[in-house]
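Researcher: Structure for this, please.
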Amino acid sequence: MKYIAHRGLSSQAPENTIASFSLAAKNQHFYGIECDVYSTKDGEFVVFHDDNLKRMTKATRNIMDLTYPELSEYSIKTGSKIRTYRNEKIPLLTSFLDICLDNNKAAIIEIKKVHDITQLTDLVAILDNYPSLTVILISFNLNYLKYLRAITERDLQYLTQSISTEIMYDCRANRIDISFDKDKLTPAIVKKLKKEGFKIAVYTVDSISQALQYEKMGIDFLTTNSLWKRG
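Model: Predicted structure, token format:
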């Protein structure tokens, strides 16, 4: 079972920042690092989880309403962690990719939202500049993933809390694996997905005993905030 650092080493540094990614990159326990991506008003791809800036910067602005230069004016403010990491900014996707490439980590990219689905072609063009980098593109938006499958052979995962015959058909037809909410994943679902030939990821697990159970079940990838001291 391969461990993925959720938004970087987000238990030790502000999530989705260069600091968080750099800490995860130095830890040999992690196979890969996960981030979240939006498109900006001027067509850049930036790493951020929420659709607005309030939780992370205290600003009442929507991320997709701003250009990248405008976003660069804001600093991350996140509780006591700001005492150590005072100058963290919202990174470009390319900065995240550079860290993953330089440290031999898989880049797990959650596509949150883009202004237009055709911008995913631009995203793939960026990834094509990293031919040796292992990339897994993930999303709750199945249409995004189906569009991506038409233009890239990169690995894809559908994030979900439930499974249906229709979802399984779409995912099988488009060679999309499944990433399941830990609170919804059961041994019966794992058995069913394994029988159909899917790779299975689970998110977001911070209990070592639960992680070991998933390992016994044959889960392929586990995303975590805090299980980073093993190995």
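Researcher: Any notable elements?
Model: The radius of gyration is 17 Å. The beta strands are 2-5, 32-39, 45-47, 106-113, 135-139, 155-160, 177-181, 200-203, 221-224.
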